[in-house]
Amino acid sequence: MADAVFPTQATAQTRYISLFGTRTRFVIMVLILLCLTSIWSNILAFNFAVICMDDDDSEVETSLNGTRKTHFTSTQNSLAMSIVAIAALLGNFPIVQLVGMVGIRTVFAGLGILSAVSTLLIPLSIRMGFYYFLAVRFLQGIAFAANFPVIGSFCAKWSYFKQNGLFVSSLVAYVQLSPAITMPASGALCSAFKWPSIFYAHGAVSLLLFVTYALFYRNSPQKHPFVGNVELKKISIGKIATVDKRALKKVPYGPILRTPAIWAVWVAAIGNFTCVNMMFLFSPVYLSKVLGFPVHSTGITAAIPPFLQFMSKLFCGAVSDRLTCLPEIIKFRIFNSIAFIGSGAFLTVLAFMGDEHKDYNMIVLGCAAAMLGATTGGFFKAGPVLSKQYSHFVTGNISLGITITMLIVPFFVNALTHNNTQEEWKWVFLITASVMFICNIFFFIFVKGEACEWTSDSFHRASSVADLERNSVRNPTISTVSRNVEDVPEKL
């Protein structure tokens, strides 16, 4: 009876472990997926809110010649998107460093709350003035810089090696899950209330998710009270065991940056996110202005391509783990080529279609999005496989792909689509397809199928010996240690 009311530590831990059995890592994966989705949704909410603002008669003024004035000009829309990318670029390296030093629990929780608060402040900032709004968008961009470092760090520490593809594909799918949720939700909020409700709802949900994350997450499975020995042993298979925490925090930047296979991953990210940002930042505009979908249905229609891509990512990630008959390098090349060439081919078809049959345009756009989901078996999976314990840096810098293209894509799309006609959008689709084709060639040539040499125990032992020998020049008393380091048994 006393144990039921005041359980011992052992009894309490047994109850914790029994709650999720040996599946705690999956619960955490889902929680992180929702948090990642929330940060990206907070950013994307603006893209639909703009349409809602322009359709709101109570908010829009009328100019002297009788035409309706919008809240934002085309240039301001581009700046509103690009400022997020600039902030993410500026925050990328410091956040990667912070993740390596203190882990993602504190960093991600803090930045997630920052994203939530800044989203709640957007309606006020818009009414105060455009530059106040840009400042709040800048804060959203700083928070967004954490997303890919978080994915890399979590997968490196929490994923079982046979489920690496599933974990990576599930988490990177936040890019598609966000618009799949945000577009219809924003459409419903816009119809039921007014555009400020879009930001208030997103900010409130985000705040709730990140408070939950801060309370539940731990930086390693060993520290989590819900993880038992069975699950812990499974997770630890294939993890590096002989390098201490100080060595792990010392990222070998030089060897990483001299590795062509790592550059192949980053270049592929440029190709992927050129297409993703074109589709998901501008699909509401294309659907409403070019194809003529009404505002109340644009949200649901715009959610179809990202939803198809989300499902495709989960499927391809699971399939890539189960294709054990093929070497990893072959799988990387096959899945990445299916994604890039397949998606580019459908975009090329879409470029030469008219706008008379909008349902057919939607089908082709949906197919282009779905094909791109195969990237989870391509460069997305290659990043953690190649970099292992340094995945927070390599996978984290995949975020440069999304931020660089987020900076460029709005300007080239707006420059080509002054009148939002199908003929103008033809060049947007063709340029996007060309970029994807070129990036896939680079990835196909230079990617590898096994972990890089700088992830191995031997590399770190050699590095430790070199450091000791350099120090022994300045401090001869440690020279004896340096001579004996190589004699340390492998099991220690």
TrEMBL record:
Iron found in the keyword field: no
Gene3D superfamilies hit by this protein: MFS general substrate transporter like domains
Primary site of residence: membrane
Keywords, comma-separated and alphabetical: Membrane, Transmembrane, Transmembrane helix
Any one of the GO CC terms: membrane
InterPro entries, per database record: MFS, MFS_dom, MFS_trans_sf
Residue intervals passing through the bilayer: 26-51, 79-99, 106-124, 130-154, 166-185, 197-216, 263-287, 293-311, 332-354, 360-380, 392-413, 425-447
GO molecular function (one): transmembrane transporter activity
Topology versus the membrane: Multi-pass membrane protein
Name used for this protein in its record: Major facilitator superfamily (MFS) profile domain-containing protein
Organism from which the protein derives: Caenorhabditis remanei
